[in-house]
Automatic annotation (TrEMBL):
Residues 3-73 form the NAD-dependent epimerase/dehydratase domain. The lineage of its organism: Bacteria, Bacillati, Actinomycetota, Actinomycetes, Micrococcales. It comes from the Bacteria. CDD domains: SDR_a7. This is SDR family oxidoreductase.
Amino acid sequence: MRIFVTGASGWIGSATVPHLLAAGHDVVGLARSDGSARRVEALGAGVHRGGLDDLESLRAGAQGADAVVHLAFKHDFADYDGAGRTERAVVGAFVDELADSGRALLLASGLVGTPGVVMTENDSSVFSGPDAPRGGSEALALDAADRGVRSVALRFSATVHGVGDHGFTSVLTQIARERGVSGYVGDGSSRWPAVHVGDAGRLVALAVDKAPAGSAVHAVAEEGVPSREIAEAISRAVGVPAVSVDPADAPEHFGWLSGFWGMDAVASSALTRELLGWEPTGPTLLEDIAAGAYDHAARG
């Protein structure tokens, strides 16, 4: 198949493209800049120039593709509502282009369910509608299964970890270095699902080939790692104490990350493993932290 990938040069995209190529697919990656284009080419994929604000370019990329894998997102937490509006517009453009064709649209999503309840692939996203986080894009895409689109939600763990990660775990490590303490919220019982980036990339490639229309797959190797254990692992990596932060003080201590860090989000991947024949093989989150995967943030 010919596959158009947004975010191909990014963290998860750069782990996904090699698996798509190894499966025999022809891959074209979206590139906004010359640097992104060089990274996409280095992965062995073709380049399609454009960005998330250029809907015509996105439609053109999807037009010649058998499947679209949408991994890009504007990670602008200073204007998260604006990022959500962009995301909804992008997914809407893809749906319109792919409608009535049976072609696939796989899009990145998250794992946010009911605190304390293990989220499964059969659970609907709690975010729906244009004003929801990420523009309610998962629901928008999955509803397109009724319009002849093989839409699939790729629900990624809160932390997709590994050497070179600059996501949430990296930010927590940087905060610990700057604050002189590695903090967790309250008693640290809130949990994050986790998956190694290599396992996540392999899952996406399997979903392209196997996931049916209207389905969700979970990139989850560990159902829920307690935040206290994550903070303690970071404390050892940075060389600072691990401490509890009162929930009322969390916004000041953790900034924009506080809402995510105190969230209890547990998720299963049992149905995904059965459907795709996927088994994670990479290191755990705590193993990655201990092995120095976040030294770039710990040392500054």
